[in-house]
């Protein structure tokens, strides 16, 4: 079971919950389980089976775009964070 | 070392070993002290490069007004250069940035336009673009999309690291405008492609991500994913913990964003130890802690510091 942190903008799908549980061996499976429990959320995160341009997904703080994308494995007790891409850093 | 003027002294910063923080003699950490630039941050490199490039192309002429969205540090660097070269500077800055950065901008003669706290730097970029449309005679250098920003690191930071540490295996820096990582990343892809490029990205409180819709998200125009090999998201608690560890173990007093970078560097170091690989990991100390003393990050417990940073643009 992984813990998935939902950004403010997508909490309309989770009844306002900030953190929801989901099982799955990969990020893709975790997102499918999210969709099962919170219909409509998947298409806000993915487009044509890829992570949307302005969405970032992290498994245990690592951006999945550099760890195998949606095939990135999700170990038990992992934390999956979904966040909108924003301008950051000490710019 | 002698220089003709202050701006001539930008760059050529020291690289120091970290014997206590390094996990083993085979996995070593090195800090590049960018806080030793003239205004105390790595942003001096980009600011100087962007201004000189704009002067060279005739886009910037004597007496012009420069406009820039900034969380403060690039603004301070631009203000220092602008002051000496006779330009006015207007900075668009999120209102949830530390008071020290505002005071410093004032000292160097810059004018500040506030952008709303909610939305953080995204909002500063949006407001600056609107102000630019109202003032077509102002010159927006636009650090998020100006190739001169990355070029400063391609020509300066990257070659300096390779000269001082030919055995370098990893380079770790913060991801904001992406200029440092894009410039150094491109340099190493061309000159020592086995060097892994690691990004540390600050993870802020919810206020900063509270967009009305996902299409308002922002990826800097400079960003090229192919120049990076790993990207860590680091929250304020880990950043503050590492800032304190850096002072305790090595005596280096750094800003909070550097704490996030140290966290990513140590995560990378732990992976190398586990894999039994030799590594020389160079990371950037972006600036000193002076400008962030008022944020609450440098006193009290970690819980108190984390609470104090909620809602602030701490990096």
List keywords for this structure.
heterodimer, A: 91 residues, two-stranded antiparallel ribbon, 16% helix, B: 315 residues, alpha/beta, 4-stranded parallel β-sheet, globular
Summarize the structure in words.
The complex is a heterodimer of chains A (91) and B (315). With 91 residues, chain A is an alpha+beta fold. Chain A has helices spanning 27-37, 42-45, and strands at residues 2-5, 19-22, 46-47, 50-51, 55-59, 62-63, 79-84. In chain A, 16% of the residues lie in helices and 27% in strands. The longest helix of chain A has 11 residues, at 27-37. With 315 residues, chain B is an alpha/beta fold. Chain B is built from 10 helices and 10 strands. A 6-stranded mixed β-sheet of chain B has the order 1-2-10-7-8-9. In chain B, helix 1 packs across helix 5, helix 5 crosses helix 6 (179-191) and helix 8 packs across helix 9. At the A-B interface, strand 5, strand 6 and strand 7 of A face helix 4, strand 8, helix 7 and strand 9 of B.
Please summarize what this structure is.
The complex is a heterodimer of chains A (91) and B (315). Chain A is of the alpha+beta class. Chain A is built from 2 helices and 7 strands.
